[in-house]
Amino acid sequence: MKALIISLIALCGLSTEVFGEVYQADSERGQALATAQCESCHGNAVIAMAKQFPNLKGQKFAYLNKQLVDFKAGLRLDPLMQAQVSALSSEQLQDVALFYSQQVTPNLSAN
User: Is residue 69 included in any domain, yes or no?
Assistant: First the structure.
C-alpha cells in the first residue's frame, strides 16, 4: 500500500511537470497593453486631476492580477473596467499586472 501511495504521489508530480506549464508574465507586452488601454485613465496626469482613478504603479503583482481577474469574471463590478478587460486573456492580464508592479510610484502631490 505504501508503495502505491508513493507511486501515485510521484505520478501526480510528473503529470504537473508535463501538463502544468506555468505562464511567465512579460513586462514589455504589459507595457504595450497598458499604453493602449490603461494609460488614458491610470496615467500620471489623469490621476493627479481625477482622484477616482487609482494609481496602479508599484502595486503588488498578485493584487493587480487578482483585481483584473475579478473584473473580468464579474466578481468586481465596474462597467468601464469590465469593458477594458473583457477581451484580454489571463496571460495578458498577468502581463499588465507585472508591468504596473514594476513601476515606481509617482509623487502626485508635488506640483
Answer: yes
